[in-house]
Amino acid sequence: MCGTEIRTERPLVSAASGCSCCSTEASSAPATDVGANGAVFAVEGLACLHCVQTVQKAVSALEGVESASVDLVPGCRSRLTVGGKADDSAVREAVTSAGYTLISN
After folding, report:
1. Whole-prediction pTM
2. Which CATH number covers residue 59?
């Protein structure tokens, strides 16, 4: 193939990088208000699509939540946007129970 090497491997993510698939540490943080219909939270520890799906599923199951979406930033602070009128403490508990960390903005 003309000397072109095709690589399909992806680098392994260290458990220390914060992927909460393997982590249980969690703490709470305040939300940023996005109007009467939702809030934005900073979440740490998400490293992959599985992490995103886990958080979205946990938060979407809460009473009053109309939508939950995550803007993934692997190894940094990801943004969780919750639409609806869910209680901040319930969102915090759902994310914490899923094994991730809510952090201050």
Report:
1. 0.67
2. 3.30.70.100
